[in-house]
Specification:
heterodimer, A: alpha+beta, Arc Repressor Mutant, subunit A, B: about 70% helix, DNA-binding (chain A), Transcriptional regulator BlaI (chain A)
Protein backbone atom coordinates (compact mmCIF):
# COMPACT_ATOMS: atom_id res chain seq x y z
CA UNK A 1 0.00 0.00 0.00
CA UNK A 2 1.33 3.41 -0.92
CA UNK A 3 1.09 5.54 2.19
CA UNK A 4 1.50 8.78 0.21
CA UNK A 5 -1.73 8.28 -1.72
CA UNK A 6 -3.51 6.99 1.40
CA UNK A 7 -2.64 10.29 3.05
CA UNK A 8 -4.29 12.34 0.30
CA UNK A 9 -7.49 14.08 1.39
CA UNK A 10 -10.38 11.60 1.25
CA UNK A 11 -12.26 13.84 -1.18
CA UNK A 12 -9.48 13.55 -3.75
CA UNK A 13 -9.56 9.75 -3.69
CA UNK A 14 -13.35 9.74 -3.91
CA UNK A 15 -13.26 12.04 -6.91
CA UNK A 16 -10.66 9.77 -8.58
CA UNK A 17 -12.95 6.77 -8.10
CA UNK A 18 -15.93 8.69 -9.46
CA UNK A 19 -13.89 9.83 -12.49
CA UNK A 20 -12.84 6.22 -13.13
CA UNK A 21 -16.46 5.00 -13.02
CA UNK A 22 -17.54 7.71 -15.48
CA UNK A 23 -14.62 6.96 -17.77
CA UNK A 24 -15.44 3.24 -17.83
CA UNK A 25 -18.85 3.84 -19.40
CA UNK A 26 -20.30 0.59 -18.02
CA UNK A 27 -20.86 -0.90 -14.54
CA UNK A 28 -17.60 -1.88 -12.86
CA UNK A 29 -16.71 -4.31 -10.08
CA UNK A 30 -14.64 -3.08 -7.14
CA UNK A 31 -11.62 -4.93 -8.54
CA UNK A 32 -12.01 -3.21 -11.93
CA UNK A 33 -12.25 0.20 -10.22
CA UNK A 34 -9.10 -0.57 -8.24
CA UNK A 35 -7.25 -1.37 -11.47
CA UNK A 36 -8.57 1.77 -13.19
CA UNK A 37 -7.24 4.34 -10.74
CA UNK A 38 -3.56 5.24 -10.75
CA UNK A 39 -3.20 5.35 -6.97
CA UNK A 40 -2.15 1.98 -5.56
CA UNK A 41 -4.87 1.43 -2.96
CA UNK A 42 -5.76 -1.54 -0.77
CA UNK A 43 -8.86 -3.54 -1.73
CA UNK A 44 -10.52 -2.51 1.54
CA UNK A 45 -9.82 1.18 0.85
CA UNK A 46 -11.50 0.96 -2.57
CA UNK A 47 -14.49 -0.83 -1.00
CA UNK A 48 -14.79 1.93 1.62
CA UNK A 49 -14.57 4.65 -1.04
CA UNK A 50 -17.27 2.97 -3.16
CA UNK A 51 -19.53 2.56 -0.13
CA UNK A 52 -19.09 6.24 0.74
CA UNK A 53 -19.90 7.34 -2.84
CA UNK A 54 -22.98 5.10 -2.73
CA UNK A 55 -24.09 6.66 0.57
CA UNK A 56 -23.73 10.13 -0.93
CA UNK A 57 -26.01 9.10 -3.79
CA UNK A 58 -23.41 9.83 -6.47
CA UNK A 59 -23.23 6.23 -7.68
CA UNK A 60 -25.54 3.26 -7.62
CA UNK A 61 -24.85 -0.47 -7.61
CA UNK A 62 -26.48 -3.64 -8.81
CA UNK A 63 -25.71 -7.20 -7.78
CA UNK A 64 -23.32 -8.86 -10.24
CA UNK A 65 -21.25 -12.07 -10.37
CA UNK A 66 -19.22 -11.89 -7.15
CA UNK A 67 -20.30 -8.76 -5.31
CA UNK A 68 -21.71 -5.52 -6.63
CA UNK A 69 -21.27 -3.71 -9.91
CA UNK A 70 -21.03 0.09 -9.56
CA UNK A 71 -22.08 2.83 -11.96
CA UNK A 72 -22.38 6.64 -11.75
CA UNK A 73 -25.82 8.27 -11.51
CA UNK A 74 -26.57 10.56 -14.46
CA UNK A 75 -28.60 13.71 -14.52
CA UNK A 76 -31.56 13.75 -16.89
CA UNK A 77 -30.07 13.03 -20.32
CA UNK A 78 -27.29 15.57 -20.20
CA UNK A 79 -29.69 18.43 -19.59
CA UNK A 80 -27.30 20.26 -17.31
CA UNK A 81 -24.42 19.94 -19.74
CA UNK A 82 -26.43 21.42 -22.59
CA UNK A 83 -27.66 24.29 -20.45
CA UNK A 84 -24.15 25.10 -19.26
CA UNK A 85 -22.72 25.02 -22.76
CA UNK A 86 -25.39 27.43 -23.90
CA UNK A 87 -24.81 29.76 -20.99
CA UNK A 88 -21.02 29.76 -21.04
CA UNK A 89 -20.57 30.14 -24.79
CA UNK A 90 -22.89 33.06 -25.48
CA UNK A 91 -22.01 34.68 -28.82
CA UNK A 92 -18.45 33.38 -28.68
CA UNK A 93 -17.89 35.71 -25.73
CA UNK A 94 -16.10 33.51 -23.22
CA UNK A 95 -16.03 33.89 -19.49
CA UNK A 96 -12.52 34.88 -18.50
CA UNK A 97 -12.85 34.03 -14.84
CA UNK A 98 -13.82 30.47 -15.64
CA UNK A 99 -10.52 28.67 -16.20
CA UNK A 100 -11.10 26.10 -18.92
CA UNK A 101 -8.68 23.16 -19.08
CA UNK A 102 -8.17 23.44 -22.84
CA UNK A 103 -9.64 25.55 -25.58
CA UNK A 104 -10.34 24.38 -29.11
CA UNK A 105 -7.33 24.36 -31.41
CA UNK A 106 -6.68 26.05 -34.74
CA UNK A 107 -5.44 23.70 -37.45
CA UNK A 108 -1.88 25.06 -37.04
CA UNK A 109 -2.09 24.44 -33.31
CA UNK A 110 -3.30 20.92 -33.90
CA UNK A 111 -0.41 20.09 -36.23
CA UNK A 112 2.11 21.59 -33.80
CA UNK A 113 0.58 19.71 -30.89
CA UNK A 114 0.69 16.36 -32.70
CA UNK A 115 4.35 16.99 -33.56
CA UNK A 116 5.14 17.75 -29.91
CA UNK A 117 3.30 14.72 -28.53
CA UNK A 118 4.73 12.28 -31.08
CA UNK A 119 8.24 13.69 -30.90
CA UNK A 120 8.13 13.61 -27.12
CA UNK A 121 9.90 16.96 -27.02
CA UNK A 122 11.72 19.34 -29.31
CA UNK B 1 2.06 70.22 -16.56
CA UNK B 2 -1.26 68.63 -17.55
CA UNK B 3 1.01 66.20 -19.42
CA UNK B 4 1.82 64.55 -16.07
CA UNK B 5 -1.75 63.30 -16.01
CA UNK B 6 -1.53 62.10 -19.62
CA UNK B 7 1.62 59.99 -19.15
CA UNK B 8 -0.18 57.26 -17.10
CA UNK B 9 -2.71 56.97 -19.92
CA UNK B 10 0.06 56.12 -22.40
CA UNK B 11 2.29 53.94 -20.19
CA UNK B 12 0.01 50.84 -20.27
CA UNK B 13 1.07 50.30 -23.90
CA UNK B 14 4.49 49.25 -22.58
CA UNK B 15 3.02 46.41 -20.48
CA UNK B 16 1.92 43.88 -23.17
CA UNK B 17 5.44 43.14 -24.54
CA UNK B 18 6.81 42.94 -20.99
CA UNK B 19 3.97 40.60 -19.98
CA UNK B 20 4.72 38.32 -22.93
CA UNK B 21 8.38 38.06 -21.89
CA UNK B 22 7.45 37.50 -18.24
CA UNK B 23 5.04 34.69 -19.15
CA UNK B 24 7.75 32.99 -21.18
CA UNK B 25 10.77 33.43 -18.91
CA UNK B 26 9.74 33.57 -15.29
CA UNK B 27 8.14 31.02 -12.96
CA UNK B 28 4.43 31.04 -13.82
CA UNK B 29 3.42 31.96 -10.24
CA UNK B 30 5.76 34.97 -10.27
CA UNK B 31 4.58 36.02 -13.74
CA UNK B 32 0.94 35.68 -12.68
CA UNK B 33 1.38 37.85 -9.59
CA UNK B 34 3.52 40.49 -11.28
CA UNK B 35 1.53 40.92 -14.47
CA UNK B 36 -1.82 40.92 -12.65
CA UNK B 37 -0.62 43.41 -10.05
CA UNK B 38 0.87 45.64 -12.76
CA UNK B 39 -2.35 45.56 -14.81
CA UNK B 40 -4.37 46.39 -11.70
CA UNK B 41 -2.10 49.26 -10.62
CA UNK B 42 -1.93 50.74 -14.11
CA UNK B 43 -5.71 50.55 -14.37
CA UNK B 44 -6.05 52.41 -11.05
CA UNK B 45 -3.61 55.06 -12.34
CA UNK B 46 -5.57 55.37 -15.60
CA UNK B 47 -8.88 55.80 -13.79
CA UNK B 48 -7.39 58.25 -11.28
CA UNK B 49 -5.88 60.38 -14.08
CA UNK B 50 -9.10 60.35 -16.13
CA UNK B 51 -10.94 61.43 -12.99
CA UNK B 52 -8.48 64.25 -12.30
CA UNK B 53 -8.65 65.38 -15.92
CA UNK B 54 -12.39 65.90 -15.55
CA UNK B 55 -11.74 68.79 -13.14
CA UNK B 56 -10.89 71.58 -15.63
CA UNK B 57 -14.14 70.92 -17.54
CA UNK B 58 -16.24 70.47 -14.40
CA UNK B 59 -14.88 73.65 -12.80
CA UNK B 60 -15.57 75.66 -15.97
CA UNK B 61 -19.24 75.13 -15.08
CA UNK B 62 -20.22 78.03 -12.83
CA UNK B 63 -22.38 76.22 -10.22
CA UNK B 64 -19.69 73.55 -9.67
CA UNK B 65 -17.00 76.21 -9.40
CA UNK B 66 -19.12 78.03 -6.83
CA UNK B 67 -19.51 74.79 -4.91
CA UNK B 68 -15.70 74.64 -4.47
CA UNK B 69 -15.60 78.38 -3.64
CA UNK B 70 -13.43 79.25 -6.67
CA UNK B 71 -12.92 82.99 -6.92
CA UNK B 72 -11.04 82.84 -10.21
CA UNK B 73 -10.93 80.28 -13.09
CA UNK B 74 -8.76 77.17 -12.64
CA UNK B 75 -5.46 77.55 -14.53
CA UNK B 76 -4.71 74.13 -16.00
CA UNK B 77 -2.66 75.18 -19.02
CA UNK B 78 -3.85 76.83 -22.25
CA UNK B 79 -7.64 76.91 -21.96
CA UNK B 80 -8.66 75.25 -25.28
CA UNK B 81 -6.13 72.41 -24.72
CA UNK B 82 -7.14 71.87 -21.08
CA UNK B 83 -10.86 71.90 -21.86
CA UNK B 84 -10.37 69.70 -24.95
CA UNK B 85 -8.44 67.08 -22.99
CA UNK B 86 -10.96 67.34 -20.21
CA UNK B 87 -13.88 66.75 -22.58
CA UNK B 88 -12.08 63.77 -24.14
CA UNK B 89 -11.50 62.18 -20.77
CA UNK B 90 -15.15 62.73 -19.86
CA UNK B 91 -15.98 60.65 -22.95
CA UNK B 92 -13.50 57.92 -21.96
CA UNK B 93 -14.86 57.84 -18.40
CA UNK B 94 -18.42 57.42 -19.70
CA UNK B 95 -17.46 54.63 -22.12
CA UNK B 96 -15.27 52.83 -19.57
CA UNK B 97 -17.87 53.06 -16.83
CA UNK B 98 -20.58 51.70 -19.11
CA UNK B 99 -18.32 48.83 -20.26
CA UNK B 100 -17.34 47.84 -16.73
CA UNK B 101 -20.93 47.81 -15.52
CA UNK B 102 -22.37 46.01 -18.55
CA UNK B 103 -19.66 43.33 -18.96
CA UNK B 104 -19.24 42.93 -15.21
CA UNK B 105 -22.94 42.25 -14.74
CA UNK B 106 -23.05 39.79 -17.64
CA UNK B 107 -20.03 37.91 -16.24
CA UNK B 108 -21.61 37.74 -12.77
CA UNK B 109 -24.91 36.56 -14.27
CA UNK B 110 -23.11 33.88 -16.25
CA UNK B 111 -21.26 32.56 -13.20
CA UNK B 112 -24.43 32.58 -11.10
CA UNK B 113 -26.20 30.69 -13.90
CA UNK B 114 -23.44 28.08 -14.08
CA UNK B 115 -23.60 27.63 -10.30
CA UNK B 116 -27.38 27.26 -10.48
CA UNK B 117 -26.97 24.59 -13.17
CA UNK B 118 -24.65 22.38 -11.11
CA UNK B 119 -26.17 23.16 -7.70
CA UNK B 120 -28.54 20.19 -7.85
CA UNK B 121 -25.87 17.78 -9.08
CA UNK B 122 -24.13 15.49 -6.61
CA UNK B 123 -20.42 16.09 -6.17
CA UNK B 124 -17.55 14.48 -4.31
CA UNK B 125 -14.34 16.18 -3.36
CA UNK B 126 -15.53 19.19 -5.38
CA UNK B 127 -15.84 17.12 -8.58
CA UNK B 128 -19.03 17.33 -10.60
CA UNK B 129 -19.39 15.15 -13.71
CA UNK B 130 -21.74 16.10 -16.55
CA UNK B 131 -23.12 13.47 -18.92
CA UNK B 132 -21.95 14.92 -22.22
CA UNK B 133 -19.90 13.39 -25.02
CA UNK B 134 -18.22 16.73 -25.79
CA UNK B 135 -14.89 16.76 -23.93
CA UNK B 136 -14.71 19.78 -21.65
CA UNK B 137 -13.43 20.64 -18.18
CA UNK B 138 -13.30 23.77 -16.07
CA UNK B 139 -12.81 25.12 -12.61
CA UNK B 140 -15.99 26.89 -11.52
CA UNK B 141 -14.92 29.33 -8.80
CA UNK B 142 -17.06 29.40 -5.69
CA UNK B 143 -19.10 32.57 -5.27
CA UNK B 144 -19.37 32.09 -1.52
CA UNK B 145 -18.04 28.63 -0.64
CA UNK B 146 -15.48 26.38 -2.28
CA UNK B 147 -15.52 26.02 -6.05
CA UNK B 148 -16.36 23.03 -8.20
CA UNK B 149 -14.45 21.08 -10.78
CA UNK B 150 -16.84 20.46 -13.65
CA UNK B 151 -15.82 17.75 -16.13
CA UNK B 152 -17.84 16.10 -18.88
CA UNK B 153 -17.94 12.32 -19.21
CA UNK B 154 -16.57 12.80 -22.74
CA UNK B 155 -13.42 14.36 -21.30
CA UNK B 156 -12.95 11.58 -18.74
CA UNK B 157 -13.32 8.96 -21.48
CA UNK B 158 -10.68 10.63 -23.68
CA UNK B 159 -7.95 10.29 -21.06
CA UNK B 160 -6.17 7.35 -19.45
CA UNK B 161 -6.22 6.98 -15.62
CA UNK B 162 -2.95 8.86 -15.07
CA UNK B 163 -3.97 11.67 -17.41
CA UNK B 164 -7.30 11.94 -15.56
CA UNK B 165 -5.39 12.52 -12.34
CA UNK B 166 -3.32 15.24 -14.03
CA UNK B 167 -6.51 16.93 -15.21
CA UNK B 168 -8.08 16.82 -11.73
CA UNK B 169 -4.84 18.07 -10.13
CA UNK B 170 -4.75 20.95 -12.64
CA UNK B 171 -8.31 22.05 -11.81
CA UNK B 172 -7.72 21.64 -8.06
CA UNK B 173 -4.68 23.92 -8.41
CA UNK B 174 -6.83 26.61 -10.08
CA UNK B 175 -9.32 26.53 -7.22
CA UNK B 176 -6.76 26.26 -4.41
CA UNK B 177 -4.69 29.18 -5.72
CA UNK B 178 -7.87 31.19 -6.40
CA UNK B 179 -6.76 31.98 -9.95
CA UNK B 180 -10.20 33.40 -10.75
CA UNK B 181 -9.36 36.46 -8.63
CA UNK B 182 -6.28 37.14 -10.76
CA UNK B 183 -8.33 36.68 -13.92
CA UNK B 184 -11.05 38.99 -12.60
CA UNK B 185 -8.53 41.74 -11.76
CA UNK B 186 -6.91 41.41 -15.19
CA UNK B 187 -10.28 41.50 -16.93
CA UNK B 188 -11.41 44.52 -14.94
CA UNK B 189 -8.16 46.30 -15.85
CA UNK B 190 -8.68 45.28 -19.48
CA UNK B 191 -12.05 47.01 -19.58
CA UNK B 192 -10.39 50.25 -18.36
CA UNK B 193 -7.70 50.50 -21.05
CA UNK B 194 -7.24 48.83 -24.47
CA UNK B 195 -3.54 48.09 -23.81
CA UNK B 196 -4.43 46.33 -20.59
CA UNK B 197 -7.00 44.24 -22.49
CA UNK B 198 -4.04 42.89 -24.49
CA UNK B 199 -2.52 41.62 -21.21
CA UNK B 200 -5.53 39.45 -20.27
CA UNK B 201 -4.38 36.49 -22.45
CA UNK B 202 -0.94 36.64 -20.77
CA UNK B 203 -2.54 36.44 -17.33
CA UNK B 204 -4.71 33.55 -18.50
CA UNK B 205 -1.63 31.80 -19.87
CA UNK B 206 0.33 32.32 -16.65
CA UNK B 207 -2.60 30.90 -14.63
CA UNK B 208 -2.80 27.82 -16.87
CA UNK B 209 0.97 27.35 -16.68
CA UNK B 210 0.92 27.65 -12.89
CA UNK B 211 -1.85 25.02 -12.68
CA UNK B 212 0.05 22.78 -15.13
CA UNK B 213 3.22 22.93 -13.03
CA UNK B 214 1.18 22.25 -9.91
CA UNK B 215 -0.40 19.21 -11.60
CA UNK B 216 3.07 18.05 -12.67
CA UNK B 217 4.23 18.23 -9.03
CA UNK B 218 1.10 16.37 -7.82
CA UNK B 219 1.40 13.57 -10.38
CA UNK B 220 5.20 13.51 -10.26
CA UNK B 221 5.59 13.78 -14.03
CA UNK B 222 5.79 16.76 -16.35
CA UNK B 223 5.67 14.52 -19.44
CA UNK B 224 2.46 12.92 -18.23
CA UNK B 225 0.91 16.33 -17.58
CA UNK B 226 1.99 17.51 -21.06
CA UNK B 227 0.33 14.44 -22.58
CA UNK B 228 -2.86 15.05 -20.59
CA UNK B 229 -3.11 18.68 -21.75
CA UNK B 230 -2.31 17.75 -25.35
CA UNK B 231 -4.70 14.81 -25.60
CA UNK B 232 -7.50 16.75 -23.90
CA UNK B 233 -7.08 19.60 -26.41
CA UNK B 234 -7.07 17.21 -29.39
CA UNK B 235 -10.18 15.46 -28.04
CA UNK B 236 -11.93 18.80 -27.46
CA UNK B 237 -11.15 19.85 -31.04
CA UNK B 238 -12.41 16.55 -32.47
CA UNK B 239 -15.59 17.13 -30.48
CA UNK B 240 -16.77 19.43 -33.25
CA UNK B 241 -16.45 23.12 -34.13
CA UNK B 242 -16.37 25.22 -31.00
CA UNK B 243 -17.89 28.68 -30.77
CA UNK B 244 -15.20 31.25 -30.24
CA UNK B 245 -12.45 28.99 -31.54
CA UNK B 246 -11.74 31.26 -34.48
CA UNK B 247 -11.32 34.28 -32.21
CA UNK B 248 -8.49 32.54 -30.43
CA UNK B 249 -6.63 31.65 -33.58
CA UNK B 250 -6.55 35.23 -34.86
CA UNK B 251 -3.00 36.35 -35.54
CA UNK B 252 -1.31 33.85 -33.25
CA UNK B 253 1.23 31.48 -34.77
CA UNK B 254 0.70 28.96 -32.01
CA UNK B 255 -2.02 29.22 -29.43
CA UNK B 256 -1.69 28.69 -25.71
CA UNK B 257 -2.11 24.89 -25.68
CA UNK B 258 0.97 23.99 -27.78
CA UNK B 259 2.95 26.56 -25.77
CA UNK B 260 1.85 24.91 -22.50
CA UNK B 261 2.76 21.44 -23.79
CA UNK B 262 6.12 22.70 -25.04
CA UNK B 263 6.86 24.31 -21.67
CA UNK B 264 6.00 21.08 -19.84
CA UNK B 265 8.16 18.98 -22.15
CA UNK B 266 11.12 21.34 -21.79
CA UNK B 267 12.78 22.77 -18.74
CA UNK B 268 10.56 24.84 -16.48
CA UNK B 269 11.59 28.46 -16.02
CA UNK B 270 12.88 28.59 -12.45
CA UNK B 271 13.63 32.28 -11.98
CA UNK B 272 11.53 34.16 -9.47
CA UNK B 273 12.96 37.57 -10.37
CA UNK B 274 14.19 38.60 -13.79
CA UNK B 275 15.02 41.91 -15.49
CA UNK B 276 11.57 41.85 -17.07
CA UNK B 277 9.89 41.88 -13.64
CA UNK B 278 12.03 44.82 -12.56
CA UNK B 279 11.02 46.63 -15.74
CA UNK B 280 7.34 46.01 -14.88
CA UNK B 281 7.93 47.39 -11.37
CA UNK B 282 9.66 50.46 -12.83
CA UNK B 283 6.75 50.98 -15.23
CA UNK B 284 4.22 50.91 -12.39
CA UNK B 285 6.32 53.26 -10.26
CA UNK B 286 6.61 55.74 -13.13
CA UNK B 287 2.87 55.66 -13.77
CA UNK B 288 2.12 56.09 -10.07
CA UNK B 289 4.63 58.92 -9.59
CA UNK B 290 3.38 60.72 -12.68
CA UNK B 291 -0.27 60.40 -11.66
CA UNK B 292 0.53 61.54 -8.14
CA UNK B 293 2.55 64.60 -9.13
CA UNK B 294 -0.12 65.49 -11.69
CA UNK B 295 -2.77 65.30 -8.99
CA UNK B 296 -0.68 67.40 -6.58
CA UNK B 297 -0.17 70.02 -9.28
CA UNK B 298 -3.89 70.10 -10.06
CA UNK B 299 -4.73 70.36 -6.36
CA UNK B 300 -2.39 73.33 -6.07
CA UNK B 301 -4.14 74.88 -9.09
CA UNK B 302 -7.53 74.49 -7.39
CA UNK B 303 -6.17 76.08 -4.19
CA UNK B 304 -4.82 78.99 -6.20
CA UNK B 305 -8.21 79.42 -7.87
CA UNK B 306 -9.78 79.43 -4.41
CA UNK B 307 -7.54 82.39 -3.61
CA UNK B 308 -5.40 80.62 -1.03
Amino acid sequence: MDSASERRPAGELESSVLAALWAAGQPQSAAQVRAAIPQPLARTTVATLLARLHEKGVIDRSPGGRGFLYFPLEDAHGLTARRMHRELDQDGDRSVVLARFVEGLSSDDEAELRRLLEGGGQ
Amino acid sequence: MIALLLVPLVLPWILPPLARRAAARVRPEAALWTVTAAAGLLAVAVVACLGALLLPLALAIAPLAALLHLIRPLQAGPEPVALGISALSAGFVAVTGATVVRRGLSEAKRLRGAHGDVAHLPHVGGLCVLEDSRPDAYALPGLTGPGRIVVTSGMLRSLDPHEREALLAHERAHLAARHHLFLAVAQLAGWCHPALAAVVPQVQFAAERAADESAARATGSRTLTARAVGRAALAATRGGPRPGGSVLAAGAVTGPVPARVKALLGHAPVRWVAPVLLAVALLCTTAGASALSGAVWLHRGVETAQGE
